[in-house]
Amino acid sequence: MIVYVDLVFFTNLAVDGTVLLTTAKARQLRPSRGRLFAAAFLGAAYAAVMFWAHVPYLYSFGAKVLISLVMVLLSYGYGGPLHFIRNLGAFYLVSFATLGGVIGLSFLLRSAESPWSGITYTSDGGLLLEWQSQLGLFVIAFLLSVWLFRSTSETRRKRQDLEQLFWEVEIRIDDGSWKMNALLDTGNRLYDPLTRIPVMIMEASVWKEQLPSGWCERLKGESADKLISELDARASEEYRWGNRLRLVPYRAVNGSTRLMLAIKPDVVVLSREGHPLLQVNRVLIGLDGGTLSSEGTYRAIVHPDMAQADPITSAPSQPA
């Protein structure tokens, strides 16, 4: 068997560099290119030395772990034991995921009778691929594995980031209480212009039974001030939430200024995993006639100022 050591070196240099770069992306690190190249060069040299010198202990389990430790240190630095262990774990995870992807995708893409034909293992644990039929397949499978891993990692990270924006909201008015899932919108800067009270948004359908007859449906297409004007003084006094009604101006998507119907609650409690964390007294509930989430994952939008409210253990302040 003829083995081209230079090809082994450059192949491992590219593979190790890609694994180290993917690990950095997964850990949201920004190492210098020089550090990554030095670590990848070490890994490639380690793989190539086996064809020049036969040293049994050089390719033992302990030696392989030691080389990986040095590669991680060269790439990302130490930064403390916990930081280092997380980087090392991510490095192994990416390595195992990509290697498993190479073997699995090679099996799918190969037309040979046996998925192991053309793959040879050396006595030192190395992996050899036939040049004519396997190198191109290895490159394709490896790149696909890296892409699949990075796509999966990005999707999981985005999902975790999105989960941090979700709250369980409880709105209390008089003796009533309504609970729902809500999304924290950092771009929501809607305030009542007079009192500077933040305004969170909620689907009007949540209070369909509490609003005057027909208001929930009419809010989809009619202006809130028209609904308020239809309530004469007597009807407003008879409506138990009449003194809680507010009109909040806001700018629509087309740039025009409109009025939103809002209600002043007694208190809003923000929770996560069933544990009350924050209590908000100064807030208005703006009513939206449509559906906030097409998937139904949330029915309210939390104002970012509400996330800065007093912890639930503190003494409640007087509502504004």
UniProtKB/TrEMBL annotation:
Keyword Transmembrane helix: yes
GO molecular function: aspartic-type endopeptidase activity
Keyword Nucleotide-binding: no
Active site: 185
TM helices/strands, residue ranges: 36-55, 61-78, 90-111, 131-149
Gene Ontology process terms (BP): asexual sporulation; proteolysis
Domain of life (superkingdom): Bacteria
InterPro entries reported in the protein's UniProt record: SpoIIGA
Protein name stated in the entry: Sigma-E processing peptidase SpoIIGA
Organism of origin: Cohnella herbarum
Gene: spoIIGA
